[in-house]
């Protein structure tokens, strides 16, 4: 199976190296490291709409993301699309290998989740 063409641009935010808090001396997450990447991003399903309060509901949508081999994508990454929507990675991204050519990694696939606030939508 051929990988779809990766024509979209996304930004991957990964946690930066820990830094020491000067006041407490404890380690805390450092600033995120942003990496631009070309990608294939496709919606898979709008699988749940839940009402948490009478005036607010949310929709959870799943997406599939494909990025080139060697892209720093982990389960701790945040993916930001061209419109600024932020997606969380669900589970571990998987390397997809070619069946020929010694099984080299062709691309990385990940399942993403987008949670949208539908407050005020009628």
Give the % helix. under 10%
Radius of gyration computed on alpha carbons: 18 Å
Low-confidence stretches: none
CATH topology: Thrombin, subunit H
Give the assembly state of these chains.
single chain
Largest sheet: 6 strands, antiparallel, barrel
**What distance separates the N and C termini?**
42 Å
The 3D shape can be described as globular
Order of helices and strands: EEEEEE
What structural class results from the helix and strand content? Answer: mainly beta
- Count up the domains: 1
How many β-strand stretches?
Answer: 6
Taking strands numbered 1, 2, ... along the chain, how are they ordered across the largest sheet? 1-2-3-6-5-4
CATH architecture: Beta Barrel
- The CATH class assignment is Mainly Beta
Report the sheet-strand fraction. Answer: over 45%
Task: Count helical runs.
Answer: 0
What's the rounded overall pLDDT mean?
Answer: 84
Write the layout of secondary structure elements.
Blueprint: E1 8-20, E2 27-53, E3 56-68, E4 78-80, E5 86-97, E6 105-117
Antiparallel strand pairs: 1-2, 1-4, 2-3, 3-6, 4-5, 5-6
Structure description:
- It comes from Saccharopolyspora taberi.
- Residues 1-36 are annotated as: Disordered.
- This is Head-to-tail stopper.
- The protein is an all-beta fold.
- It has a single domain (8-18, 28-117), classed as Thrombin, subunit H, CATH 2.40.10.
- It is 0% helix and 66% strand.
- A hairpin with a 5-residue loop joins strand 4 (78-80) and strand 5.
- The relative contact order is 0.24.
- The model has no long low-confidence stretch (mean pLDDT 84).
């Amino acid at each position: 199976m051929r990988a779809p063409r990766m024509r979209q641009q996304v930004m991957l935010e990964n946690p930066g190296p820990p830094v020491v808090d000067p006041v407490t001396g404890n380690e805390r997450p450092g600033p995120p490291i942003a990496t631009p990447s070309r990608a294939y991003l496709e919606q898979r399903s709008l699988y749940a709409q839940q009402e948490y309060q009478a005036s607010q509901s949310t929709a959870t949508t799943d997406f599939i993301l494909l990025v080139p081999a060697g892209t720093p994508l982990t389960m701790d990454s945040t993916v930001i699309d061209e419109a600024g929507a932020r997606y969380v990675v669900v589970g571990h991204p998987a390397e997809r290998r070619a069946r020929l050519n010694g099984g080299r990694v062709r691309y990385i696939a990940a399942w993403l989740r987008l949670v949208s606030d539908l407050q005020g939508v009628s």
